[in-house]
Amino acid sequence: MSRVPHSERGRIVELCLKSYTQREIADSTGRPTNTVNRIIQAYRNEGRICDAPQDRRPRVTSAIEDDVLGPRLMLICLALRSSMLNLQVFQLH
């Protein structure tokens, strides 16, 4: 699904406010009627023209923890992947 640019969303809402039908707006913009309807409903119900916020999985570690753990975890992964490396070389202190 391709994203509808913000400027085009604004144009769709503008045409709706000028009493164009959704079919006329769809024909004018080249977008499916379903897309036009979704954008208009988002404007009417939530007052937004931009994309809806996306739910994201919460972070498991903080940025500081990533900085501290990152290099150590990389070394452990490298050691486990390589049969030639001795794990004792990468002992954590």
Automatic annotation (TrEMBL):
Q: What is its main location?
A: nucleus
Q: Which Pfam families match?
A: HTH_23
Where found, per UniProt? Answer: Nucleus
Gene3D superfamilies tied to this protein = Winged helix-like DNA-binding domain superfamily/Winged helix DNA-binding domain
What InterPro entries does the entry give?
Answer: Homeodomain-like_sf, WH-like_DNA-bd_sf
Got a GO cellular component term for this one?
nucleus
Q: Which residues form the signal peptide?
A: none
Domain of life (superkingdom): Eukaryota
Name of the molecule in the record: Paired domain-containing protein
